[in-house]
Amino acid sequence: MFKQWERAPAQTQIDKQAFIEALKFNADGLIPAIAQQHDSGEVLMMAWMNLASISETLATGQVCYWSRSRQTYWRKGESSGHRQQLVALRADCDGDTLLLLVDQQGPACHTNRRNCFFFEAQADAVTVLNDVDSGLV
Amino acid sequence: MFKQWERAPAQTQIDKQAFIEALKFNADGLIPAIAQQHDSGEVLMMAWMNLASISETLATGQVCYWSRSRQTYWRKGESSGHRQQLVALRADCDGDTLLLLVDQQGPACHTNRRNCFFFEAQADAVTVLNDVDSGLV
């Protein structure tokens, strides 16, 4: 379906349920989801969703992932309070990646940094960009 | 190693080769890489890299992915001219996702839209956000 949909002009409407079911999940039934702070553009984290967690996220407006390590639903912020409120859910051209525009409460990373991407490769070393807990305000 | 590295304070330096080899590649030897336009913050696409394509990207400053469909190196823009110049390569807290800050020449998407995330799920439908070729200027 994506080969057909990708040619559609702007403002074309596609049935939502058909679209979600046509997404390309991997052998474990999962699809990667990038979370981006909607206003600043900061890329916060990447995690995985399944069909049910996508549906729940769209229904509730609170982002719900699938935890591969715990093999269960991961309602972001349920224990930490660092919730992600959904602003928009987008999918890419071939339907194998999601982009979640969110409003992140507090830090997105489990180290309490604001985002998870704090290792930066440079000419001869990798540098840690910021401190544990630096996302707590 | 990442459980140890994630506690390190800002400005800590880690050996680059050891870091890259400690990244968590999947069963196919691949790791997802998000490409973001370095100045605007626009998320352009997501693709996959292996150890050799990461090393090549760092050495040349031109982004090289691994194409899962073609099972070969994919030097972004080699045929289209729509290259990605690397500005910074980052990894996340647990070393299983990369974030590439890039300078994208022209459109990133094969449909010649500027980015690949042009399907947006809304209340009762999915909307196409922009037209084929809209990223050509």
What does this structure look like?
Chain A has helices at residues 2-5, 16-22, 51-60, and strands at residues 13-15, 31-37, 43-49, 64-67, 72-75, 84-91, 98-104, 119-121, 125-128. The mean pLDDT of chain A is 97. In chain A, 36% of the residues are buried. The first copy, chain A, is of the alpha+beta class and 137 residues long. In chain A, the strands form three sheets. The first copy, chain A, has a four-stranded mixed beta sheet, with helices on one face. In chain A, strands 4-5 form a two-stranded antiparallel sheet. In chain A, strands 8-9 form a two-stranded antiparallel ribbon. Chain A has one domain: Phosphoribosyl-AMP cyclohydrolase (Ubiquitin-like (UB roll), Roll). In chain A, a hairpin with a 6-residue loop joins strand 6 and strand 7 (98-104). Chain A is built from three helices and nine strands; from the N terminus they run αβαββαββββββ. In chain A, 15% of the residues lie in helices and 34% in strands. Chains A, B: It comes from Reinekea forsetii. Chains A, B: Catalyzes the hydrolysis of the adenine ring of phosphoribosyl-AMP. Chains A, B: Its cofactor is Zn(2+); Mg(2+). Chains A, B: One of its GO terms (molecular function) is magnesium ion binding. Chains A, B: Zn(2+) binds at residues 93, 109, 116.
Q: How does the SSE layout of this entry go?
A:
Two copies of one chain form a homodimer.
Chain A: H1 2-5, E1 13-15, H2 16-22, E2 31-37, E3 43-49, H3 51-60, E4 64-67, E5 72-75, E6 84-91, E7 98-104, E8 119-121, E9 125-128
Parallel strand pairs in A: 2-7
Antiparallel strand pairs in A: 2-3, 4-5, 6-7, 8-9
